[in-house]
Write a structure and sequence with these properties.
The protein is built from twelve helices and nine strands. The protein has 348 residues and is α+β, with helices and mostly antiparallel strands. Bound molecules: 3,4-dihydroxyphenylalanine (DAH).
Length: 348
């Protein structure tokens, strides 16, 4: 092929050059412009061209070299720019293309939210209080006698040395959410209608049936003329909403220092439908909460006139309700965070 044609052929090649990265670009530069590159070789051969052809061919050759250099510089710039852009964009190209695993809601959160939702439909709002409490709010104002065994070290975690308090200490981890009652009653005026969900602590050995912390939801309603019948009606409504319309309740007399009269509420066993099974120990009933009419002493201790106002209160364990709903036999599963357990609540 004559030199002129080879130059034209190379011109076409040079115009068509493409490089996806710096390595490919360098290979092109070597192919055409290095010492032994095709364009450089043509310049060597140019010396042997007859003088009358030199002018035209020389111009063509220069054009070829300029075009090749220009095109390579242009591509170099493009590659550098795109690398900078990538570095700035914080795109992580090493990440797997799989979508991020979404977490699931914890069964105790699901149950707590359902309880709150059911009571919010009859006018209850949520109130919260501190987990690190004082004796006054957890026991004193709730009519616990000074020597009441619930204060005993076996039940209550007292906070002592860490914050430099000498015995007898006044600071403790709340052992029930009833403490939020006293906080609400001393800061709000009746009518009061609150639900107090939260974590509570007791000094118990950890086993399948007991834990040193668990969760409760407390309810409190104070107004003029609140009666035990109102309490029963609210609790029956709750039981049917939570466990199904066929659910029955029964109230057994009981004792709590802060309510008078007091009761414990059972629901018909939702596992055997009341026929009797291992879960309800053959009785057809399972206990789910404590309740009663707020003791006038408690109202007075919180600055509420017990001659004008009356109220009811109730408290239930969230784990207990979750147990009944989801049949979780071992309490420890709730706090171990084993994903094999937690994943089972994905669709709830
Ligand atoms: N505080 C009680 C407990 O932890 C539960 C309870 C019972 C709360 C009766 C109440 C109530 O408000 O009226 O065992």
């Amino acid at each position: 092929m004559a030199l002129k044609e080879r130059v034209q052929d190379l011109l076409a090649q040079v115009n068509d050059m493409k490089a996806a990265n710096a390595e490919e670009l360098e290979a092109l530069r070597i192919k055409y412009l290095s010492k032994k590159g095709e364009i450089t070789t043509l310049f060597t051969e140019f010396r042997t061209v007859p003088n009358e052809e030199k002018r035209e061919l020389g111009q063509l050759l220069n054009q070829l070299r300029q075009q090749a250099e220009g095109r390579i510089n242009e591509m170099r710039e493009q590659i550098v720019n795109s690398q900078e852009l990538l570095a700035k964009s914080q795109l992580d190209l090493t990440r797997t293309p799989d979508p991020i695993d979404l977490g699931t809601r914890h069964p105790l959160s699901l149950v707590r939210e359902e309880i709150v939702d059911i009571f919010s439909r009859i006018g209850f709002t949520v109130a919260e209080g501190p987990e690190v409490e004082d004796d006054k709010h957890v026991y004193g104002m709730l009519n616990f006698a000074p020597e009441h065994p619930a204060r005993d070290m076996q039940d209550t975690f007292f906070i002592e040395k860490e914050i430099g308090i000498q015995k007898p200490t006044d600071v403790l981890l709340r052992s029930h959410t009833s403490s939020v009652q006293t906080r609400v009653m001393t800061s709000q005026k009746p009518p009061i209608r609150v639900l107090c969900p939260g974590r509570v602590y007791r000094n118990e050995a950890i086993s399948a049936r007991a834990h040193c912390f668990f969760h409760q939801v407390e309810g409190l309603y104070i107004d003029k003329n609140v009666s035990f019948a109102d309490l029963k009606e609210a609790l029956l409504y709750f039981a049917k909403e939570m466990f199904g319309p066929e659910t029955q309740i029964r109230l057994r007399p009981s004792y709590f220092p802060f309510t008078e009269p007091s009761a414990e509420m059972d629901i018909s066993c939702n596992i055997c439908g009341g026929k009797g099974c291992a879960f309800c120990k053959g009785t057809g009933w399972v206990e789910i909460l404590g309740c009663g009419m707020v003791d006038p002493n408690v109202l007075e201790a919180c600055g509420i006139d017990s001659k004008v106002y009356s109220g009811y209160a109730f408290g239930m364990g969230v784990e207990r309700i979750a147990n009944l709903k989801y049949r979780v036999k071992d309490l420890r599963l709730f706090s171990e965070n084993d994903v094999r357990f937690l994943r089972q609540f994905e669709s709830c």
